[in-house]
Amino acid sequence: MNPLFDTHAHLDQIPDLQAALDDAREAGVTGIVAVGTDMESNEKTMRIATEWKGFVYPAIGLHPGHLGVCDAARISAELRFIEENLAHCSAAGEVGLDYHKRIIEQVPREMQQEVFREVLRLAVAARRPVLVHSRYAWTDALRLVRESGVSDAVFHWFTGFSGVLQGIMDAGYYVSITPAAEYHEEHRRVVRAAGMERLLLETDAPVWYGRTDRYQACPADIVRSMRVVAELRSESEEDVAAMTTRAARRMFGGTIGQAIEEVS
After folding, report:
1. Is residue 261 pLDDT above 70, yes or no?
2. What is the pTM for the complete model shown?
3. 103: domain range?
4. Structural domain count, the chain
5. Which of 107, 131, 173, 257 is most solvent-facing, going by the fewest CB within 10 Å?
């Protein structure tokens, strides 16, 4: 089996991290982008990446779902932390927009867009890719990313409109596929329609998956993402592993590329 790369996991939320990372290595995972969501999460993510250097790569961000508990001073502090530390990380993320009714009630669209624009500006300045959260906000998220001038972005767990997906492909950005593609029809449609060279794999661990048989994801479940892509694209598992790992190398560039190159 070719090496696998998990481009989006919340390692700071996994209780027995050592066991989870050991299982991931045994499953063929050669690297994980650990994703932060606010300052506390970002700090922990960076510590984890230091402890597992060469296997875990940090991304720091400000999730739109956290903005509801932030006043202006807190948001400024969060953005300052990202600015001061992003050069030492592999990507900015998780950041973006979330237009779910529950989130909009706490954080208006305008506020979300203002913060997202600022993080995108920081990513451009640091020359870092962006991990984009875009739930029910696909059109606005793509527009803001394109307007920012960000060179590389991945729309994580993408389930959006076909027209937006085409826009992502045309801009040279990526979408990432989770184990939800085993049963979620909109996500399955993305797997079939996206350009293979623009697909990445992720777990979003430790999120819960499944409709009848529920399970909590760990990075080793990247194998499930790979297998469902292979099934839906009529590709071999080995080819999907190789192509998505090469795509991760392109997406993240030198911040993780050497580690992937050594095992490819």
Report:
1. no
2. 0.95
3. 4-263
4. 1
5. 257
